[in-house]
Specification:
This protein is mainly α and 205 residues long. The two termini are 36 Å apart. The structure holds S-adenosylmethionine. S-adenosylmethionine binds next to α5, β2 and α9.
Length: 205
């Protein structure tokens, strides 16, 4: 949400505002006009993302060491569901956060995803604090250290890397297919990221 100044400033000369040149439109308007097409920025609705997460066998979630990468995270719907599912399946908060990675080419999508996850961490820790499961100092230090893991694990992909992304990752292809034959290419891409112990689970249907 944008910061708002109070009291709000009254706009006296509306004619001037109406005749503003195109370039003066807000960044949000520019995004909706140009970015969606260019980057395929159509985000998955919650119900569909949940259905996809539920297709991954429970045995995957039961292992707290399994790592997972969202290669084009948008506003982070999958990242949040992954972390929730890991915690629900017995992972600790730190295990869930430190085994989940996300990338995107757009900086504001990365910021939105990080914020979403840090909000989630805050909510989980607040519940523990209110139930006296953790102390106030522990609440503060955990929030800080988990937030820094989030900043490390959820990152903007570099332009050079995005060229590799387009050629290697199947869902960057125009047909958006999720096929078994692409798994080797996807693994090669993940290796090129140099992330620690990435063990990808790939949806095939
Ligand atoms: C169709 S959206 C999907 C977002 C999210 N996975 C979801 O399902 O809601 C595609 C995302 O890929 C990002 N993207 C586009 N090209 C990319 C590239 N070359 N490397 C990484 N991310 C890219 C866009 O910014 C956008 O957030």
């Amino acid at each position: 949400m944008p910061l708002t100044c109070y009291p709000p400033t009254k706009v006296k000369n509306t004619k001037k505002v109406k005749s503003m040149p195109k370039e003066s439109k807000t960044p949000k308007e520019e995004k909706s006009q140009e970015r969606i097409k260019k980057n395929g920025e159509v985000f998955t609705p919650l119900f569909l993302a949940q259905q996809m997460i539920d297709k991954i066998p429970q045995s995957f979630w039961n292992d707290p060491n399994k790592t997972i990468l969202e290669p084009a995270c948008g506003d982070g719907i999958f990242v949040e569901l992954i972390i929730r599912k890991k915690i629900k399946s017995g992972s600790s908060l730190i295990q869930a956060i430190s085994t989940t990675y996300a990338l995107d080419i757009m900086n504001d999508n990365i910021l939105a995803t990080r914020l979403r996850i840090i909000n989630r961490i805050h909510a989980v820790l607040l519940t523990s604090l209110s139930k006296n499961k953790i102390s106030q100092p522990s609440f503060q230090s955990q929030l800080l250290s988990l937030s820094s893991i989030v900043t490390y694990n959820i990152r903007k992909v570099k332009d050079t890397l995005s060229m590799n992304f387009n050629s290697l990752v199947p869902w960057a292809d125009r047909d958006f297919s999720f096929r078994l034959s692409h798994q080797e290419k996807t693994k090669a891409f993940l290796n090129s990221l140099n992330l620690p112990s990435v063990d990808p689970y790939i949806l095939n249907d």
